[in-house]
Amino acid sequence: MKLLLKNRGALLILMFNLLLVFSGIGLIIPIMPKFMESLGITGGIVGLLVAAFSLTQLLCSPFAGRLADSFGRKRMIVLGLIVFAFSEILYGIASSTVLLFVSRMLGGISAAMIMPAVMAYAADITTKEERAAGMGYINAAITTGFIIGPGIGGYIAEFGIRMPFYVAGVAAIIAACITLFILPESLPSKENIADTPSSTIKRSGLLSQLRYTYREPYFLSLIVVFVMSFGLANFETVFGLFVDHKFGFGPKDIAFIITFGSIAGAVVQATAFSWILKRFGDQRVITLCLFFASLFILLILFVHTFWMIFAITFIIFLAIDILRPAISTQMSMVAKDQQGYVAGLNSAFTSLGNVVGPIAAGFLFDLDVNYPYILACIILFICFVLAVKGKKNNLQDTNVAS
């Protein structure tokens, strides 16, 4: 509680803003299958729409991360929220595929502006000892938004299939106002920011930044982020389509599964995440979460009842919701004074996986509804192997140093 009230309650305000935004994102999840069906869009197009969002986020994230370090975290968050609001409203009024793609690309720009700034903000106002708890709170707000969003969206859709998009836009505008008028700036003064050897990389373009990341101590973490995002995108992109086509689930059914399937993740992030990381270590937590995510994504192909799907999805969401803040925490611990830059690279590698994953998932879904989940299982298991390898390398480095 002390951490939440620190800096005039900055972390608490940031959590509330993220709760509003991701509730807005969650609102549209249950109605996507019916919405796409009303426009006559195939699974392949759905995958391309998700990829368009992620590709734009990928191209903008490193630049946005640098801006968060120079322009200010607060300003980037406010601008990102405004762009997000416009993109959701545009998606709601769109009647053509072109407008849908424009909307998703604007959404990608907004995500690139918001997430690196948010992660850097959390790192600014927490000490190393508080970092895991701070990241846990931030991700708990995101997860909680996804929990209550779909539940609300399933019922808002009763007033019109496009209504959740408008509500999402309004939620983002409210969050932008709260950030603008209440949230203090967290960026340390420039006099306290030392010049680092990697500053030349910061000033280079996206391709140079990605090319030179192999020199950084967090390179393997970035590879894990990419492979993980690719696998998870296969699961998340077609989940609504999967249960709609295979089991005939409607918006309310999808809302129920996603809402209650995410509750455990939010509770763990807010209450036990810091303890889990201190007790087991970030690398072990990452490894175990990858293993269980790959295993249970495979199991979902062999169940047929509503409650079994609910139980398996519950465990998958729990693993994912612990995995993401664990990786963010691991990278923030080695970022030092490059928090915005490293958070931007984290977002960029996540987007890179989210570009390829949804495209593969969408077109595989058109071939067979089970194919995306088979691929997701394989990819996440590969990521598990990479994480185990990284753990062994860390142990060898520790032994050499001692």
pLDDT < 50 stretches: 189-203, 398-402
Number of strands: 0
Q: Structural class, judged by helices and strands?
A: mainly alpha
Give the biggest beta sheet: none
What fraction, in percent, of the residue positions are helical? over 70%
Give average pLDDT, whole number. 78
What pattern of helices and strands is seen along the backbone? HHHHHHHHHHHHHHHHHH
> What is the rounded Rg?
20 Å
Globally, the shape reads globular
Strand content: under 5%
Number of DSSP helical runs: 18
* Separation of the first and last Cα atoms: 38 Å
Give structural attributes:
402 residues; mainly alpha; 18 helices; globular; disordered C terminus
Which helices and strands occur, and which strands form pairs?
Blueprint: H1 2-27, H2 32-38, H3 43-70, H4 73-93, H5 97-124, H6 128-156, H7 163-181, H8 199-203, H9 206-212, H10 219-237, H11 239-247, H12 251-261, H13 263-271, H14 273-280, H15 282-299, H16 306-335, H17 339-367, H18 371-401
Helix pairs in contact: 1-6, 1-7, 3-4, 3-5, 3-17, 4-5, 4-7, 5-6, 5-17, 6-12, 6-13, 6-14, 6-16, 10-16, 10-17, 10-18, 12-16, 13-16, 14-15, 15-16, 15-18, 16-17, 17-18
Describe this structure in words.
There is one protein chain. By secondary structure, the protein is mainly α. Helix content is 83%, strand content 0%. It contains 18 helices and no strands. The protein has helices at residues 2-27, 32-38, 43-70, 73-93, 97-124, 128-156, 163-181, 199-203, 206-212, 219-237, 239-247, 251-261, 263-271, 273-280, 282-299, 306-335, 339-367, 371-401. Helix 5 (97-124) runs antiparallel to helix 17 and helix 12 crosses helix 16. The protein starts with a helix and ends with a helix.
